[in-house]
Structures are given as structure tokens and as C-alpha cells.
Amino acid sequence: MAKSKYLTAPIPTKKMPPGMPCILTTEATERFAFYGMSSILVVFMTKNLMGANDTLDVMAEDPAKKWFHLFTSAVYFMPLIGAVISDVWFGKFKTIIWFSMVYCAGFAILVLDQTRMGLFGGLALIAIAAGIIKPCLSANVGDQFGASNKHLLTKFYGWFYFSVNLGAAISMFACPFLLDKYGPKYGFGVPGIFMFVALVVYWLGRYKLVHIPPAGKTGWRETLDKEGVIALGRLCIIFVFVSMFFALFYQSESAWVLQAGKMNLNWLWIKWRPAQMQAANPFLIMILIPLFSYVIYPGLNRLWALTPLRKIGIGMFLTAASFLVCVWIENELAKGNQPSIGWQFAAYIVLTAAEIMVSVTALEFAYTQAPKKMKSLIQSVELLAVSIGNMFAAVVNLVITNDDGTSKLPGASYYWFFVISMLLTAAIFIPVARWYKPKDYIQDEASMESSA
């Protein structure tokens, strides 16, 4: 067999793998593109969507929320397809490169056509491409580590998540400004440029990255052996519960944005645009990840062994608490008051703490619990939880909409519905987490001869 021109197994080292800067830069720029675009979607659909003859053809709030969550659901369904494409045919690297090109094409359509046809066409390509490459990027992180430096995996997944939120924080603050000040061409065009940068950076790092070869059709069948099927089934049970977290979390990009538009937007000497408060989440992530890693988790561990599933369970209760802040805000708006947008920042603090305990933990948990040949597939199962959660939110918004456009769950009752749903999910999750027995799988290292 001909020797590959790329690394095909991790190099034995006690340091961070050499491909890490490439992965972090690619992830930060790709997430700038995705979150910058998604942060302005609801505002674009309700204020800027065009029809024939250059006339406005905007959506009402509930249909806009529904389409936002359907798009997000589609994005996080496609990782299942991406896992098959990468593991059977192309491998992770080629899958990321080819579908990044499709990603860029989707942005080009959004820039060139602001009608419903352009919106749905561009979003379709972005949903396909973003979803397909997502499990490959996150699984490719774990592929860089072997037995010698696996102790650094948890720390690097924290930095990986940090890079995600660095890109998101900047774009979620900048893109609403670009949309409001210069229009959709700039609002979507700047994220599109960042996606092109992500494609170029990842291609330039090809010789420093570990390229785990695709398993092929035979390998795919072998992957789904008894052990693999059991691991998959056990993890699916866990991620069904995690999906409710995502049903609530992604409403910070839909319902919370619309709520912000009714609040007093003057806060901290800044006149905020409703969509800009979303930047609080990634900004807080960058502060709270080190705080949790070096202070909160070690402190809690001294009192109580903090397993990954216990972290997820605690995070679920925190998620419900964040929506209680939104309940209070809605009650004030019913009363005719206009509370400060700063109250949403308080909700974001709690929601972000919940995200660290649920989402960051689940990302690493999905990798370590996956048999070696199932890394991309299991990552896609974790992402499918996001899809299911957003589909749930989309269906709820569809069902509660009356024929005259009013809601069956107006004001605070909408948020109470999700608080109760989250609390019930968290309560049932406790005995399930006690039942699950973790089993870790880490990639084998290259021999010293082959890495020389």
C-alpha cells in the first residue's frame, strides 16, 4: 500500500498536536460566518425581506420564528449525512473542503437575492454544507490526540469551544449593525467572506492535520457491530434528553430577539439593536469557560464527584432558571412597563452557565463514548439532538399560532411552557444518568518508526 502524503495517525507527543492552530482558526472563522448570518435571520425576515418589484414582503413574528427553527433543525440534521459521506467515502478533510465551497455558494445567493426564493435557496445550501462539515470538524479535534496527550483533550475541547464563541461574539455584535446600517448585502456578505477565509485556512493546514482514512463501505458495516450498535443506542437515549436543552437554548436567537425589540434598548451607555444582545452568550462563554475549568469544577469536585452526566443534569435545571428571567420580563411588558435590555443579559449569564455544563460536556462526551470507527457518526448523533430540539420549538410555534395570527400562549405563558418542559426533562434524566455506565475510546497513536 502506498504511503499517504498526510499524517494518518496522531504523533506520540505530550504537547498539543501541531494541527491545532489550523483547527481553531477554521472553527472561529466558520462560526463567525454561521452565527453572523443566523443572528440577523429573524430581523431580516420580519423587516428586510423583499418581494417582486423591489417591495417589502416581510413575515410576521411567529412564522419567522418557525422558519428560523426549521432552518436550524435542518442544519443539525445534516451531520448524519456528513458522517456517512466522510466515514464511507471522502474522509473528514475532503468532506470539509468540498462542502465549504457549497457553504460559500449559499452566502453568495443571500447577497445577490433578498427575496423569499433567494432566502430559501441560500439557506438550503448553507444548511446542507454547515451540517455536513460540522461533525467532521469536531471529530477531527479528537483525531489529533493519542494516548500520550489524551490528558490534554478536555482542555483543548474547552479552547475549541472558546474559538467557536470568539467568532460568534464578534459576528453577533457586528452583523446586526451591518444589516441595520448598510443592508442585507453587507449583513450577509461579510460572514460570507469569513467562510471563504475558513476554507482557505483549513486547506493550508492540510500537512499538519491527522487524516484518519475513511472506513469505506466494508468498514462502515464492520463499524456497526454489536459493540457499536450498543454504544450508539445508549448514547441516543442520553441525547434525547439533551435535545430539550437545545429547544430552549436556540430561542435566544429567535424569541429572545423579538422580546428584546420591546424592551428599553439603552443600557451601559449604548443604544443596542435587538439582535446584538445575542453577542452576550459567546462573550460570556469566553469568560466562564476558564472560570468553570479552573475554579467552579475543581471546587465542586471537592464536594461531590462531578461526572459528565451530573454536569449535564445540573445544566438542565439552570436552563429552566434562565427562562424564568424571561417570564419576569414578559410580565413587566404586560403591565405596560419597558424593562431594560440589561435584564436579558442576566438571563444570558444563567443560560451560558447551562450551556457550558450541557453543550460543552456533551461535545466531549460524544467523542469519548464513541468506538474508534464511529467518531463522526456519534458526533452527528450529538448534533441531531440540536435538530430535534429546534424541530420541537418549530412545531410548538406552529401549533400555538391561531388563524388570525395571535398566539395560544401569549406573553409569559409561552416561556412558562418551556420552563415546565425543561424541568420535567431534567427530573426524568436523573435516574437515566445513574443507569448509564461510561466507557472511553481514544484513537491509537502512530508508532515511532512511522512518525519519524
Would you kindly provide a written description of the structure presented here, covering whatever features stand out?
By secondary structure, this protein is mainly α. The protein has 16 helices and two strands. Helix 9 runs parallel beside helix 12. The chain starts with 19 loop residues before the first helix and ends with a helix. Residues 448-452 have low confidence and may be disordered.
Structural class: mainly alpha
What is the H/E string?
Answer: HHHHHHHHHHEEHHHHHH
Helical content class: over 70%
Distance between the first and last residues' Cα: 18 Å
Number of helices: 16
Q: How can the largest sheet be summarized?
A: 2 strands, antiparallel
Beta-strand fraction estimate: under 5%
At the first level of CATH, the class is Mainly Alpha
Which characteristics define this entry?
single chain; 452 residues; mainly alpha; Growth Hormone, Chain: A; two-stranded antiparallel ribbon
Helix-strand blueprint:
Layout lengths: L19 H20 L1 H8 L12 H17 L1 H34 L3 H28 L9 H30 L1 H21 L11 H8 L2 H24 L5 H6 L5 E2 L2 E2 L8 H24 L4 H27 L7 H27 L6 H25 L12 H24 L12 H4 L1
